[in-house]
Queue: 2 jobs
Job 1
Amino acid sequence: MRRIAAALLAAATALTPAVAARPVSFANAAPQASGALVLPLGNAEELASRGGSLDSGTRDAIGRALASAEFDYKEGSTLSLRGIGGWSQIVVIGTGSAPLTAAKLQDIGGTAATETAKTDGPVTLLANGLAANVPDAGAQIGIGAELGGYTFDRYKYRDAAKPRAAGRDAPLTIVGGAGGDGYAAQPAALTEGVLLARNLITEPSNEVWPEEFVTRTRAAFRGVGNVTIEALDETRMRELGMGSILSVGQGSKRPPRMLIVHYKGGSGAPVVLAGKGITFDSGGTSLKPGTGMWRMKGDMAGAAAVVGTALSLAKSRAPVNVVAIAALAENMPDGGATRPGDVVKAHNGKTIEIINTDAEGRLVLADAVSYGERRFKPAAIVDIATLTGAVGGALGSDYAGLFANSDPLAQQLSAAGEATGEILWRLPLHANHAKSMKSDIADIKNSAEGGSPGASLGAHFIGYFVDGGTPWAHLDIAAVSWRTDALPTVPKGAAGYGVRLLDRFVRDFRPVAGVAPAASSAAN
Ligand code: BES
Ligand code: MN
Ligand code: ZN
């Protein structure tokens, strides 16, 4: 009986995808009143133009409601009305008076999706004349709607006799917004990349472990052109001298993998994106406290971001050459686990004294970045990781931490952050970090006595393994990858942070000058 139940559950969960947001479509003229209407407005006067296609009775009723509610038209303000015209719901979204950016348009789309989530019927969003300065304004709203409307209910009981109201899956139609024609080509690929990342992050660690991460990634890329996928297993990693990632995975029954997704849509040296992929971080022998440990199922958000970015670029056939490396391991404390004090050797030959097995992200990334640099001779390396609790102490959950050995590379990343709303704040690397991570018996320790400044020390450690003079940056997303409060385009939970940012960064990337190679040992 229990076996049957388990088999049924397995079959059900295998077949039930996370529910997608409403499909996005585009139109030039407003359809007939039905379902919900969304009206973005920056001031009272815009009602006449943007709502020009509405009948005058409806428009006047909306105007009276806005006046009597003293609606302020500020960015993000909303007013939900019912019982007007043929609409079951009318949502006015304030857009403020500043020029709208792509990121703000996405926020409008996200707000539209969440405010109308319970409407049983289609949603019509009037975007005519909105943000004339953004060439694909309508498409940006569509991206935001798909991202803001994301839910993950794969493990929720669903009564087959009572299906979800079909009207909740009816389309969200963006009327008069630019960029709808090309939506399928690029914006839809971007949301697919973000949603792949969110799903991987949200899945519990008994469902997604290193090998399964590889399987899911292969499935997501099936049929996508110009992509090669390799997954290095333990034997291959041993041959390649990747003792650092192997040491992290050795305490788990689920072996580590180094996943390499190469999308070659352009020529020239590739950009390498390396992601921390700890499918669960118990801390290992340096065990974490129990409270909140469950969140460490999402300690692979960096890896999810790099494969999500590659998916977006590949599916939209971007003319870029990019290599996503996901350094995958489960950090567990069994009898074979690494002990504090153990010394291991990374791919580039440098030795590491592991002072704390909970500082494992930098260990898997040490092999990922040194392998990426040696094999692909990239134009730049960007690693992304839920690396330290300390970064949240410094920056909160508004900015991800940015570290770089190249100012122009840091500038390109910051610009991509501003453009996409996944914003970055640069934090320092300092020569003294090498001193505090100096080991008496190996080339470097993986953490320092006292551990301060935590985020910078983690960054320094990873940079120490980029030793061929390649421009390199590190993004610490520990405090932004999982949200406890929703944003317009990010529901509570997995943000998929970094896909929008890195997608933009890679598309716009311009090669920068090489840097002085990192020291060959922490001592010098
Ligand atoms: N995965 C954690 C960092 C983290 C903390 C991510 C909270 C998301 C939320 C990382 O592996 C870790 O344990 N870092 C340690 C480093 C320390 C041992 C040097 C930390 O931040 O305490
Ligand atoms: Mn850890
Ligand atoms: Zn970790």
Job 2
Amino acid sequence: MECLRSKARTPLNGTGLIGKEPWWKAAVFYQVYPASFKDSSAEGWGDIPGLISELDYLADLGVDCVWLSPVFESPQADMGYDVSDYQAIYAPYGTVVDVDRLTAECHARDMKLILDLVVNHTSVEHAWFKESRSSKTSPKRDWYIWRPARYDSHGRRIPPTNWRGYFAGPTWTWDEDTQEYYLHLYAPDQPDLNWENDECREAIYNDTMRFWLDRGVDGFRIDTVNKYSKRTEYVDAPVTDPQSDSQPAPEMWCNGPRIHEFIREMNQKVLAPYNAVSVGELSNMASPHDVIPYVSASAKELDMVFEFSMIRLGTGGGFGPKYIYRPYTLSTFKETVKKFQTFIEGTDAWTTVFCENHDNGRAVSRFGDTSTPELWRASAKTLALWQITLTGTLFLYQGQEIGMVNMPSEWGIEEYKDVESRNFYQEAVDSGDEQRVRDTMHGLRILARDHSRIPFQWDGGKKNAGFSEGDRTWMRVHDGFGEINAMKQRGDQGSVLEFWKRALRLRKRFKDLFVHGRFTALEEGDEKRFVYLKESTTESGGNRRALVVMNWSKEVQKCVDVKKSLGCEGADEVRLLFSTTDRGPKMVGGEHEAALRPWEGRVYVNFEAGDI
Ligand code: NOJ
């Protein structure tokens, strides 16, 4: 194998020249959960002016595109994922003019802005649903999914199917006035739109998408994108949980028969004409191969999707005991990462890299180690190193860059505000099974969506961590904000924040390897170390390689044979590009010490990198 000594020429990725790539492949996206980011009005609830005031912070971090979670008018049954007016802004967040200003302020900093498009369902308070439920003959009746009741052998009314929804309980709610059930995959407050109806689809394109694209936003994160097409026979799912009236049924309403047609239409009619970027939320995928049709460039559907196999590790499954924690091994974790790193090779599809969002616990609490401040810092940096060396478009979630952790384990259920957490907890209580209640609480402490939704920790010396000057905040501020906050980390070269900044710059500088490179897993069965190779091919046919070696444990581990893994002949051909330790590994006899400290990560390369 050849080791390049000189600076490589323009590198190639697996499928073509990087020079031709769209902007969003090497871009860093940053998700803002607006209720918890920054409050400018002392109401204890974040807002758009608050976000605007921190755009310089994001630009300095290296962010290229802000993804703003829903800010539209909403009763907030599911934190804005229940929209009652797509063209108005929920007053505590601000106004449409504030969003216009946000767009302009992002653009002024060379950043883009994408909004969250929630069009699988609306709120029950949306005018479309109010009209639809007003009578069976309403012109909008068919914009939602209405079905008559069934009756059991005792003559009791039962829902049209036995399907179970996401937030526990059935997917159907009875409407007394019109004597029919309506479908909702999530809360009863979130009725599903009927994408089979042509007028309804046109209204979605026009009133939600074009409205915002015309105002200058750059695209959308698309909520629940593979659930628009349901199986329209509306039949029962097989009984897999005999204890319950409702059954897991994703095969009935996910990846349905017309899903690709609907998404292609959305692309053709709206996304493509505006050159808008799209990243869809794609759940319940059986295999990576099923993901390809959604993100193959030639299929003209979506630019990117989020696939959740890795981030869902540890959960008890989406429709069963989701919050009964299920331990897993590092090799399973690595296997999942590998699957979603390699599945695009040899195709024209693309992938994403992320390990946090508003629907999951904090990564450093789940995958790293928060048992001591040293291990917290080391593991937060190693998780950063892992993320920035993976292929695909990188998405960061607010607070990840300062290593924010889960809510303290002493906090009780009253601090958990999320509809899903509360419903699963209540279901456990209602079962009368105390062990189940304890197990659910244990799972919630690791996995609940609430952990990522507590206020951003800006400043250890300020009221409410600098998130809000109000007397109360909508969720409790973490007790440890004095230790973990942005102010404390700014300018401290050993901090998680400064590490992320350097790491993001490095990712972009060597994007051939990190954003686009081919991924090869090494030491796959190792339960303590996470090791892989990234490779890219230059125009001249040369081969650049990066070896990522991470100690994924609190004990010292031996480093791998770096020369051998990189395919280099001599020690002088190997360069340490980057390391999570402040001064890099110690030198022993002209080489780096073989011992990897707890949660230490290193990146070695086979080429001269110049100053970094
Ligand atoms: C996925 C969103 O990320 C989640 O927060 C929400 O509850 C559901 N979709 C329903 O919109």
